[in-house]
## 1
Amino acid sequence: MNRNRRHKQATSSEERVLRLIRHTLKPEFRKLVDSGIRVAIGDDAAVFRARPGYETVLTCDWFLQGTHFLLDRHPPDAVGWKCLARAASDLAAMGAEPRCFLLSLALPTSRTGAWLREFLNGLRAASQKLNCPVAGGDTTRHEDVLINITVVGECRRGQAVLRSGAQPGDAIFASGQLGEAEYGLQILRSTRGYLNSGDPLLRKHLYPEPRLALGAWLGKQRLATAMMDLSDGLSTDLPRLCWASGVGARIEECQLPVIDAPATREKHVNAVSLALHGGDDYELLFTVAPKNVAKIPQRFAGTAITRIGEITSARKTVLINKKGPAKALPQRGWDPFRENQK
Amino acid sequence: MNRNRRHKQATSSEERVLRLIRHTLKPEFRKLVDSGIRVAIGDDAAVFRARPGYETVLTCDWFLQGTHFLLDRHPPDAVGWKCLARAASDLAAMGAEPRCFLLSLALPTSRTGAWLREFLNGLRAASQKLNCPVAGGDTTRHEDVLINITVVGECRRGQAVLRSGAQPGDAIFASGQLGEAEYGLQILRSTRGYLNSGDPLLRKHLYPEPRLALGAWLGKQRLATAMMDLSDGLSTDLPRLCWASGVGARIEECQLPVIDAPATREKHVNAVSLALHGGDDYELLFTVAPKNVAKIPQRFAGTAITRIGEITSARKTVLINKKGPAKALPQRGWDPFRENQK
C-alpha cells in the first residue's frame, strides 16, 4: 500500500512537469495549424506538414548547465529565451524561417518548481517572438539542467544559403556589433550579488535575437554567396566558412563593428579582441559577389550591416591593420574541447 | 607562440571528433538523395525535402549516461545502436518510416578515442539497418556522455496512428515478448567482469529492434485505432494511451506474452511482473476495432502478435487473473522523476 502510494505521488510529479510544459507552451490551435503542425505534444511523435514548394530545414542545439550557462548566474527566463533563440539562429544562417521546435529537457527534481516556471516563461516569449510554437519533446530527470532544442524551419526550394558558395573577390559582411555578448558575459561573471537582467550591456548575452529577417531577405534576393551565424566568434567561425568554400579571407581591423559603450573605454576593454574572438553574438556573417555589394544596405530592420573584409584565394585568414603587414588570425573563439576554456 | 600552439592542438581535437563522426556515419551520396537529404552534416542546418503526399513525423529522445545507460557496463556499440533504435521506435508507433536523423552528442575528452569509435560503429549499424542516414547534429564537451537523437520520418498524409483513437470494445494487442529487455538489464547488472554482449538474453536490452514494418503496415491498412511503443513498461504506457483516448482497459494476465527462457524459471524470476512493469522493450501496443481483429496475424515478419485485453469505458486499467476479481493495475514502470528508481 505504502509502495503504491509512493509510486502514485511520484508519477504525479512527472505528470506535473509535463502539464506545466504543455500549459505554458501550448500555442493556440490556429497557430498550430498555421505552423504546419498536425499532431503536437502528447503523442509518440509530432506530425508536421511541409508547404508545397518549400524544403524543411532542421537543426539541433545543445544548451547545457556549466558548458553554456551558469545555473546560479543566468536568470531562468534568459536560459529559456536563449536556448530557442540560438537554435533558431542556425535557420537565419540558412535564410530559412522557423516553423516549430522540439524541446528536450532534463532537470533535477529541485528545479521542477519556480525555476522551471520561469524557464518556460522565457521560452514561451522566444517562441512567440520567433513565431515558432512547440511541436513535441522529451523530458527526463538529471542532476544537471540539460537542454537540447531541435528547430524545424522552411525555405523555398533551392534557396538555402550554404557555407560553401564564397568566391575570391566576394565582400565579407557582418551584422550588428561584434563582441557585445562576450562583453555581457564578462559583466555577468564579475557582478557579485544582484544581477540586473534588464541592463542593456547584458541584453545581447542574455536575450540574443537571431537575424531571421535579414537571413531570409538575403536568401530570397540571392544576394549572399555564403552565410553562417557567428556563435563561436569571428576568428573561429570565418575559417569554417572559408574551409567549406575552399577559399581564404582578409579582415580589416579598422572596419570591424566593435562595441563602443562608454563603459568599455573606462575599463580598458580590448574591443577589437572581443569582436574577433567573442562568442554568442548570433550575428550573421555572409559574403556577397562584387556586382551585388551596392545592394546591401547599411542597416536592415534596425541592425547595422558592415563590410569587414574580402574573400581571397589564399586559403588562410589574415587580419590587416594600419600598423603593419597582414597577420594570420589565430582561432581564439569558443571551442568546447579546448582545455582551460575561459 | 606557446599559446597559439596550444590553441591549434586543441582546435584539432574538436575537428578530429567531427571528422570521426563524419567519416564513420557519412552515407553514400545516393543514400542521401534517396532519403530526401539535400544538405547534410557540415552546414548550419540540414535541408530535407519531404515527398509529395507525405507528412513529416518528428521525435527527439534523450539517452543519458547514468539515467539510460551505464558507462562502465554498456558496450559503447550498444549505446550507439540503442540511442537511434529507441528514437526510431517512436516513429514505428506512429506508423511512420524513418528518413534521417540528427545526432546531438556531448562527451568528455577521455571518450573521444576508442569509446567514440565503437559508439559510432554501433550507431552506423543501426543507421544502415533502419535505412536512416545522419543529416546533421551538434557536438560539445561534457563530463558525462549525453546523447539526444532527433529522428525525421514520413507517413502518408493523414495516416499517422495516434494514441487517441481507441474505443471501448477495441481489442488490445502487443508485439513480441514483454519483459525481455528488463530481464536483460537484470542480467547485465548482476554480471561481474566480462560481459558477453552476444548473449541472446541480453540482446533485447542492448540491441532493440523497433517494429517499423509492423507499425507501417498497421498504419497503411488502417487497422490500428490507437498505437504507441512500450518504452516505460505496459503498466505505465497503457494508461497513457487510455488517457489520450478517454477510455480504460482490461488486461488478462494469462494472455500476456511473458518471457519463458529456462534461465528465468531457474532463478524464480516473476515473468508476469517483468511483462507488466519492465521498460525498454520497444514493442508496439495497439488497439483494433472488433470488426478488424481477425485481420491481425499471429506473427508479423517473425514477431509474435498477442491479444492481451480489451478497451473499456471505465477510465481505469485493471488486471484480470484466474485467481480472483479484477484488480487495479499499479503504474510501476519507468518514471524518471520517481525517487529510488531501480
## 2
Amino acid sequence: MDIAIVLYEGFTALDAIGPYEVLAQLPDAAIRFVSYEKGPVRADTGALTVLATHAFDEVKRADILLVPGGPGSDNAEQDAAVLDFVRRIDATTRWTTSVCSGSLVLGAAGLLRGLRATSHWMVLDRLRPYGAEPTEERVVEQGKIVTAAGVSSGIDMALRLVQRIAGDDFAQGIQLGIEYDPQPPFDAGSPRKAPEHVVGMIRATFEPLMAARRPAPRT
Amino acid sequence: MDIAIVLYEGFTALDAIGPYEVLAQLPDAAIRFVSYEKGPVRADTGALTVLATHAFDEVKRADILLVPGGPGSDNAEQDAAVLDFVRRIDATTRWTTSVCSGSLVLGAAGLLRGLRATSHWMVLDRLRPYGAEPTEERVVEQGKIVTAAGVSSGIDMALRLVQRIAGDDFAQGIQLGIEYDPQPPFDAGSPRKAPEHVVGMIRATFEPLMAARRPAPRT
C-alpha cells in the first residue's frame, strides 16, 4: 500500500501527521513524504521541520495520495509543480484525499469539479470557484476523492479509509492502538458548537490575515 | 512561554505533534524540539523524520516540558542523557507532561513517586515499579505533573493545559481553530469500549514485541 503525503512550506503538521499515524499501520504501508525535493520542509509555525523522503519527480504512483492544508496551501494552490504532481498521482490512485485547506489544492488541480467537498470551516466558500459544492461534513467521500475538514479531522478520515481498505476490525484495532477515545475539555470544535464570541474571536484574528494573502482563484 | 518537546529515535509522531499543534498557539509560544543533538530524529515507523532544533545541553529551562512515547521510550527510560535532561528541566517548569509511554520516562527520572499517572493502556502496569499509581484516565493532573494516555490523548491534554494557562475562551478558540470535533467511525478507542476480540488482536500483536524489548525497570 503506497501512500504519498505532499509537503510544502507552511503546511499544518497535524493535517499530515494525524492521518500518517493511522495509515502507517495499514498492512504493507509504505509512506512517502513528497515535496519539490528531498529534505527539510518547514511547517506553518516555523518551529517544526519534517524531512521529505522523496522529490515529486521520484514518485510515479500511489495507492493513497494525501494533501494536507495550512497557510502554505495558498501558494500550493498556484504552484504548477504541486498541481502537476497531484494530477499525475491522482491518475494512479485508489484514493485521493485532503485535510483542511488541502482540498483547495485538489480543487486547483481540477479534481473537485461537480463534487461535494469539505475544508477548514473558515475557507469552505473558497471551494466554489473550483466547481465544488462546499459541504459542512467532517469527512466527505465522493468516489475515490475524500476530503476532510480542518486539521484534526484527518484522523477521522484516515480511520474511515482503513475501514474501507482493511475492514472494521482492523480500523478499530488502529483506533485502539492510538487510544483515540477523544475527551476534549469543551465541545467547541465546530462553528456550530463553539460559543458565538469564540467564533467571532477566531474570525477576527484570522480573516484579515487570510484576506491579505488570498490568491486569485484559478478556475 | 517556552515549550520543550523531547525527541528520541522511535518516538511516536502523533504523541508529540498533537500537543505541539495546540501548544504552539499559546501567546508567545516558543517551541523547541530537543534531542541528543540538533538534527534528524526518526519516528517509530521509519518513514517520518523530524528535525531537533536544539541539543539537550543547549536548553536550560522551559515553562512546559513534554515527553512523547513510542517504542523508543524503552531505550529512553534507561538513557542517562534523556533522564538527566528531564530532571534538569523539570526543576524549572510550570508543567511537566507526557503522552503515552512518555510517562515511563518521567517515572524512570523519578518524577512520579507517590503520584497517580497514566500511560498507553498496554503499558499502564509498568508505571508501578516507578512508585506511581496507574490510573485509567485520559489525562491525569497531579500538581504540575500531567500525564496523558495513548498517542492521540496528547491533544486533549494540551487543550486542558491551554485552559489552565490562558483560560476557557482561548482553549475553545484553539479547539475551533484545529476543528477538533472528533467523529471517529467507531467507539473503539479504549480497551473498555473496543470489542473484546479487537482488544485481544491488538494484545496478541504487540505484547510479544513489547516483552522482547522490555528493559529491567530502574527503581
## 3
Amino acid sequence: VLGLEVVLAGGSALRLGGPRLKDSAGLSLTRLVVGSEGTLAVVTEATLRLMPPQPPRMTAVASFPTTNAATGAVLAITASTRPAMLEYLDRPSINAVEDWRRMGLDRGAAAMLVAQTDAEGIAAERELATIISAFESHGAGEVLATADEEEGRMFVGARRDVIPAVERRGRLLLEDVGVPLPRLPALVDGIARIGAARDVEIALIAHAGDGNTHPLLVYDPADQRMVASAHAAFGEIMELAIGLGGTITGEHGVGRLKKPWLRGQLGDDVLELTRRIKHAFDPNHILNPGVIL
Amino acid sequence: VLGLEVVLAGGSALRLGGPRLKDSAGLSLTRLVVGSEGTLAVVTEATLRLMPPQPPRMTAVASFPTTNAATGAVLAITASTRPAMLEYLDRPSINAVEDWRRMGLDRGAAAMLVAQTDAEGIAAERELATIISAFESHGAGEVLATADEEEGRMFVGARRDVIPAVERRGRLLLEDVGVPLPRLPALVDGIARIGAARDVEIALIAHAGDGNTHPLLVYDPADQRMVASAHAAFGEIMELAIGLGGTITGEHGVGRLKKPWLRGQLGDDVLELTRRIKHAFDPNHILNPGVIL
C-alpha cells in the first residue's frame, strides 16, 4: 500500500502517501492506518504497488507420521530458504477434505505439507531439493514433487478446501494465532493438548512458513456445554500463543471477538499508547466503536 | 523491522511488535516509529528479519547520448521487471569520478545506467535481456553485460564514488527528491533547468528504478552569492518534486533542513494530524525538538 485517501472523524479528507516507491517525508501514516480496522479513519481510496506476474510454480507435497516431524521439516526449510508457499494440514483437516472430495490424500498421515517455489530454473531446482531433503530427513512417508501446474493446483486446492470441508462437521470458531517460527512445534503440540483437555474437535491448518496457524474449532451451536468448551479452548489457544512470544492474530485482526486478549499480548503501556493515538485521530470515538479498544 | 523496544518521553520502556513474521494485533506502532526521526520515542532495540544471502549478481551498463534516452530506458525496464539495482549517473557525475579515479568511463555520455539482476539461471538471462533490449532501443552507445562479479563491482563502485568525487569540487548540498516513476524524465529535466537558471553546478545520481534522485549541488562556502544560489536551487528542486506528485525526501528524512518544505508536500491537514500524533507520544515535545515539526 503506497498511499491512501482517508476521511477523518471530523469529516475532512486527507491524502496519505502516494504513488512513490520510496517516501520518508513525515510519519508513516499510511502504514499506521493499514490494519487499524477502521478505528482511525475511513479509507476511501488506496494506491497499491503492482508486482510483475509470478512465474509458474513447482510444488512439493509430503505426508508425515507425526505432527512434530512436519513442523520440524518447516523449521529446516525456513532456516535457509523462503518458499512462496509452505502450508500445513493436520489429520482432521486431511480427513475432512477427503470425506468431502475423495482426492486420494493419505488419511493415515498425522500431517501433510504443501510447498511451492516461485523461483525459476536452477534456483527453483535448488529450492525444491532443499524442501524435499528436509521432508525426507524428517521422516516423510510419501513425497511428491511436480512442475505440473495443474497437479500443483490440486494440492493447493485441497488446502483451500479445508475450511468448507470442516464446516460440514459443525459450527466453526476460526483461530489465527502465530508464533516466532522456532516455537511452531510447541504451538502445534499445545493446541492439540487444549483440544484434548476441553474435548473440542480441532482441525489445524497453517501458513506454516510464516508461523501463522488457523486452528478450526468445531462445535454444535445447540449444545451449550460444547459452545462453552469451544470458547474456553479459543481463549486458551490465544493465551498459549502469547506465552510462546506469539500473537493472538497473525492476519485477521482483533475486531470485537479477540479484544479481551489484546491486553495480554500488548501489555498495559502499549494499550494506553494505542488509546492516545486513537484519541488523536478520533477524539469522540465515533469510528468503529468497540473494535480493538 | 519486526519489532522495537522504545523508551517514551515519560521514561517508560515499551515493546512494539516482536520476532513474528505476521502480526496484526493492534495498531502498527512499529511501522509508525520507524522513520519518525527520533520524534516519537527513543529506540533502544530493534528486531530485524534476516533474509537468505543473495545469489551472485549479473551486471549491465550502458551510456546514453541524452538524459531523456537514459530515463526512457528506466521506464521501459521498470514497466516489466524489478532489477536488484538500476542506478543513474549524469555527465558531471561520470566526469567527477573519471577525474578522480580514471576508470575509462565514457566522458562524452550524457548519462550512464548501471543495472544488476539478482535472479538466477534462465530468470537472470531473461531479466538481463529485457534490460539490454531497453538500453539498445533507447539509443545506448556502449552496452556492456557481465556475469563477472569483480567487473560488476567496479561499475557499482564508480556509482558509489560519485559523492566523494563531486565533494572534491566544492561543498555539497545533497538532495533526495523522488517522484512517481513516470515523472522521472520530467524531474531530471527540471533539475537541469534549475541548475542552469541559478548557475549552480549539479551532478545528478539516482536510484532510478525507485524514482529517487540525489542531485548534488556544488558551491563554494566562501562565495556568499553562490551559497545563496545553491540554497535557492535546493528549495526549487523540492518544489519541482512536489509539483510532479513526488516527495522532498525519498530515504534520508526531513530533519531540520527540509522542514520548511514539508507542508508543501503533506498539506495543512496531514501536518496537523502529525502534530496530534506527536503530542500523543510526547506531550511536552522533549524528543528531538525542531525535527519534522
## 4
Amino acid sequence: VYTLEVNHDILPEIRSRQSCREYLKTSIPQDAVQRILDAGCQAPSGANQQPWHMIVVDSPKRKRAIRNACEVADRGFHQHATATVRRWLEDHGITTEKPFLTDAPVLIAVLYDPKAPYSLHSVWIAIAFMLLQATREGLGSLPYTPSAADIKALLNVPQHLQLASILPIGVPRETVRQPRKPLTETQSWNQYGASRNPVA
Amino acid sequence: VYTLEVNHDILPEIRSRQSCREYLKTSIPQDAVQRILDAGCQAPSGANQQPWHMIVVDSPKRKRAIRNACEVADRGFHQHATATVRRWLEDHGITTEKPFLTDAPVLIAVLYDPKAPYSLHSVWIAIAFMLLQATREGLGSLPYTPSAADIKALLNVPQHLQLASILPIGVPRETVRQPRKPLTETQSWNQYGASRNPVA
C-alpha cells in the first residue's frame, strides 16, 4: 500500500507540513524569518513582476490591532458562511476568536499588486514557498485570510496594493494533519474521470 | 554579502527551481508524475475541501489539441496585453507559439471548484507544491495559464470545475533564472516602507 508518510522521495517539508492554529509565545530567530521571506521571493510570477510585498509584524501593539480588526470582520464571515463551511468551522473548533494573531511572535502580512499579470496566482505560490520554508525551520504556519478587515490602514499600505493573506509564524503548540481525499477523486488521465488506461 | 544560492538553510528546491519553457521530448517515469500529483494534494485548503482535480495528459493527440486551442487564445491575449507585458514577452522571446505544450511528455491540467472557500488560493498552493516536487525529481515546469482557451471541453471537464493552469512536466532543455528585486523593495517591518527598526 502506498502511503505518503513513508515515501521519502516526496519533499520532506511537503510530507510533514501540518496546519497550525495554536502557537507558543516563544520568540523565533530573525534569520529564520528572513529566510522565510527570501523563500517567498523566489516564487515564479507573471512576467517576472514579483508583485508581492511582505510586512513582518512583530510589534505586540500592531498584532493586537490586527487581531481586533480580524475578529470584527470574522464575525460577519461566520454569519454569512454556507452551511457546509459553518459546520466544518464548528467541527474544527474554529471560532471568531483569533488568539493565534497575538500568540504567534511574528505575523507576515502578504500584499500584492492586483494590476500585475496573474498577480493573485503568483502571490499564492510565494505564500506556499513561505509555508514550506517555515516547516523547514521547524516553525508552524497557516495562511489566514481575513474576509473584510481593513488591515491595510493599520499597516500604512498604499492604495495600489491588496492584502492576500496573513501568515502567523511561530513555534507550534499544536498542529493538525488534515485527512486527504482518495487519489482516485483528485486525478484523471487524458480526460476527466478516466483512469490510467490509455485514451486516444 | 548574503546570496540565496549559498544559503543552504533555504529549501534546495526553492533555491534551485528555475523557469522552464523548453523541454526534451524524452519520456519521464510514471512514478515521478504520481509523486508530483501527491505533493499537490498535500496542500492546505480552505475548510480542507481540497477543491482540486488534476488531469495528466500524455496522449500526443490531446496535447496537440490543447496546444492548438492555447495558441488561438494566446494570439488574442498578446494583442490585448499592456505595453509592459508585451515588451516583457518580446524580450523573453515568448511568442504565441507554444511548442512546450507538445514537447513536454506530460501536461498536468489543474482544475478547481470555484465554489469551495478560498479555492483559487488553495489550488495555487497545490500548484506551487507540484512545482517544487518536479524540481526534486530533476524535472522542469512552469505554470501556463491560457487566457481564454476552452481546454475544458477537450478534456470532458464537468461544468462546475474551472481550469487553474496547465503544468508542462519534462526534462528541461533550457531553464532561466529570473533576476530578483532587491529585498528592500519587497519587505517592511510593522508598517509599509519601514525597515527593521522598531516601530510602536
